[in-house]
Amino acid sequence: MGRSVAWAAFLVGCAQAIHNEPINQPLGSGFTPSIDLSHGIDTPYDSTVVALSFSGGGTRAAAFAYGALTGFEETRVPGASASQSLLDRVDFVTGVSGGSVLAAYYGLKKRQALADFKQRFLLRNAEENLQTGLNLLTIARGLQGGINDPTVFPRWLDDNLFDHATFKNLLVQRRPYIWINASDIYDRTPFVFGRVIFGALCSDLASYPISLAVAASAAVPVIFAPIVIEGYPGRCSIPLPEWVGRVRNNADAPPLLKLFANAMARYHSGEVRYVKLLDGGMVDNYGLAGFTIARLASDTPYGPLEPAEAVKLRRLLFLVIDAGRAPSGSWSQTVEGPSGVNLITAASDTATESGAVGSYSAFQGTMNKWQDELVNWRCRLSPAERRRFGAPPGWNCRDVKIFVGRVAFDQLGPQRAAALNAVATAFKLPPDQVDMLIAAGHDAVKGNSVFRSFLASLGRAPARGVPVATPATGPHEAQTQ
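-> structure tokens emitted (481 positions)
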């Protein structure tokens, strides 16, 4: 026993130091606000907003989400002058861990991402430069802070996928908006890579590498050392959003909102000088917390929309593409176990899944309540206010419907779901499993009941394989005012 302890201590001492120095830069004078968590959701095209969430789960999550995008690509919906692909109507994508890889790449390449993402990422071995095996040396490095330092995976992503792009490439575009989600492990809150958080840190988001944000989102504890973001308190004149102080002074504020507001205040004051980031799935494997916070932080019935956007809105679809893992292993049939790797995996999966379920439930409840509040506010507008906010002739104040749904393995039948759940959540998969996941994502989204209801509500049935349906008349769509 004594020799083992001494040997472990020796290995810890000999292990290479972890290189996780922050590279984010202080904020320059050119900062301008953007949407994120304090500004309205821009709907520059028409009255329909489409948002997607790509869950965590390594390459299997990225492949399943990629398949869902192929289903969107072949779905035709009404456009300004003709029908167009629903893929071109996606306004927001939020991604976590493996899902963040596709979210970022789709944000950079748009529909062109469908042409080469499979070859550039899904069929590649993104673990080729990583230490993934367990031995005395890797355990020693894990005890030092992480088996792999934060430079290896981002370098692979830049060389093979992102071509050294920074957030500047995403901030200049209007559609789609991309949110990459990690976990602040000190404040135990989501960290959404966006200008609001970076503004609180007085740091420049535009120059920050997308590869590092994605690596932070996918940084499984112990396997990876944390990605570190440095704060520059007092180096800029950017104030915190108004709602931060209001929430911190409200004893009855929702816990999620309170935690996030406290984190923002600590970043801004310098109480937290170095933010340590790990896998986004630790606090929110669906990447929904940012949207929930955006709504809860608003003190208006229409926020985070602007009034004119809230008047224009008719349909909002939010689909979670969930590649989460079902329970597995045989240790539930014995008194003994789990142990070793099974114990670590079971504990991690329990935390991730329970957090995801809570995040989804909170989001669904928030969006349902928001729909009611939007209808009540719209129907109380005076004729002058309707004109000022751009309500067209014949506008129906109740004609607004928010669709929230989850696309997952369990919706494809037990046999197919079992085969999908058996796929590892790694960043290296055999081609046949990649193809199986892509086909599953396509079929799951096309057969999803929420997706089909959304399409029917648009007035046509524009998707291949989706039967023609008449527009639905929901509880908020029956009265014209």
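DSSP finds 18 helices and twelve strands in the chain.
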